[in-house]
What we know:
- There is one protein chain.
- This protein has 215 residues and is of the alpha+beta class.
- It has helices spanning 2-26, 55-69, 90-105, 109-122, 130-139, 144-151, 154-172, 200-213, and strands spanning 33-35, 45-50, 76-81, 181-184, 188-190.
- It has a single domain (30-213), classed as Glutaredoxin (3-Layer(aba) Sandwich).
- It is built from 8 helices and 5 strands; from the N terminus they run αββαβαααααββα.
- A 5-stranded mixed sheet has the order 1-5-4-2-3, sandwiched between helices.
- A hairpin with a 3-residue loop joins β4 (181-184) and β5.
- α3 (90-105) runs antiparallel to α4 (109-122) and α3 (90-105) packs across α7 (154-172).
- 29% of the residues are buried.
Amino acid sequence: MKKIMSxxxxxxxxxxxxxxxxxxxxxxxxxxxxxxxxxASSKPEVREYFSFYCPHCRSFEPxxxxxxxxxxxxxxxxxxxxxxxxxxxxxxxxxxxKAVVVAQLMEMEHKLSGALFNYIQVxxxxxxxxxxxxxxFVLNGADGAKFDKLMKSFSVNSRAKSLKRSQDSMSAKxxxxxxxxxxxxxxxxxxxxxxxxxxxxxxxxxxxxxxxTLK
Length: 215
């Protein structure tokens, strides 16, 4: 058995190296992706910066789900809501950041995010208080009492503040200037404008996986 495994590894290794080299030749730093930091995140991650007030973010959501589904088990997909759009106050937008964390803890993230996108962009309704967000959650099956408890919890506030710090750090570097934006390991920002329009989804996914291999 050991001999067979050794033989398989010997046969597959050149193929794996060829694939890695091919991707390295295909994807060019400064064109397909931008290096924004010399330091990588502490754990492997793909981070999407987005806003419920951004129409392009709403269109990007189904594709973001595809990216998340295709990631290796050891790589986290982080959804980082931002607070710098002019459509609402930073306080309201930070409240929505907290709401994303609450939706994740309720294990209803995709359903409730979709409901918030719909409420703000399709129904053209206004979020003016935490009560408005709570109503959207409850109307879509969330427990109101649990929402209240989580929104006030230390863990949710800490997580939301961490997301805010990540946003501010990338904004200060001028690496994050708009949304949606996808970063890999805190070091590389994907430039979708340079990807293959005829095979965009595959090319995007290939680039994500390539960037996860870089040190």
